[in-house]
Amino acid sequence: MWRKLGSSIFLFVLALLVLYPTLAVSSRSLLKARADIEGPPGSGISGEAMLIQTEDDSILPTVKVIVKVKGLPAHTKHGIHIHEVGSCANTTVPFGGAGGHFDPGPFGMSNPDAYHPFHMGDLPNLEANAAGNAQLEYTTSRVTLSPGPLSIFDTNGSAIIVHGNPDQGITGPAGSGVSGGPRVACGILLPD
């Protein structure tokens, strides 16, 4: 009898050990954000961005950024950043309502060219192929979708901007365009 009971307990514990990683993953919740990216009317630029954060007990959560854009000139690189305001309104520049680069905090510096590439919203360049399609998959710990100081869902929201030129990854004088130059497309990031 003890041998049967011991064998049954062993099999039960073994089953738990095998199933635990599956159970642990399925108990995590996902936080998602999405943006429909559009260029100015008639530009032919469109796309989407998806941000995914797995809610677990880690101290520093990570967010996977997936961006797909079409309608860009063939074989070109384009700066892309999360910007500090959830607006794509035109101001003195196209999509100027998005403000500067997302960089919250008491010492934040949102000027696109002046603290670059250290803004929390800085991302690697998009690279368009021969058909003008670009795709980016990148994981960052610089932003979160959950509440906190790095949340893109702060009081004024956030947007994602595609620039006309490559991001040079350097700091330059304000207005120098080293972070990508003109804004050619924008999307407001919303919870999904």
Question: Your description of this structure?
Answer:
Helix content is 14%, strand content 30%. The protein is of the alpha+beta class and 192 residues long. The chain has one domain: Superoxide dismutase, copper/zinc binding domain (Immunoglobulin-like, Sandwich). The model is unreliable at 9-27 (pLDDT under 50).
Quick recap:
The strands form 2 sheets. This protein has a 7-stranded antiparallel sheet with strand order 5-8-9-1-2-3-7, with no helix packed on it. Strands 4-6 form a two-stranded antiparallel sheet. The chain has 1 helix and 9 strands; from the N terminus they run αβββββββββ. The chain has one helix at residues 2-27; strands at residues 29-38, 46-55, 63-70, 77-78, 80-83, 126-127, 134-140, 158-163, 183-191.
Write the CATH homologous superfamily: Superoxide dismutase, copper/zinc binding domain
The pLDDT mean sits at: 84
- Main-sheet strand order equals 5-8-9-1-2-3-7
The CATH topology: Immunoglobulin-like
Please describe the biggest sheet, giving its number of strands, its sense, and whether it closes into a barrel: 7 strands, antiparallel
Order of helices and strands: HEEEEEEEEE
Beta-strand content bin: 25-35%
CATH architecture tag: Sandwich
- Rounded to an integer in angstroms, the radius of gyration calculated over CA atoms is 21 Å
- Structural class label: alpha+beta
Shape: globular
CATH class equals: Mainly Beta
- Domain count: the total is 1
List how many beta strands DSSP finds.
9
For the termini, the CA-CA separation is 55 Å
Low-confidence stretches: 9-27
Helix content: 10-25%
Helix count, DSSP H or I runs of 4 or more residues: 1
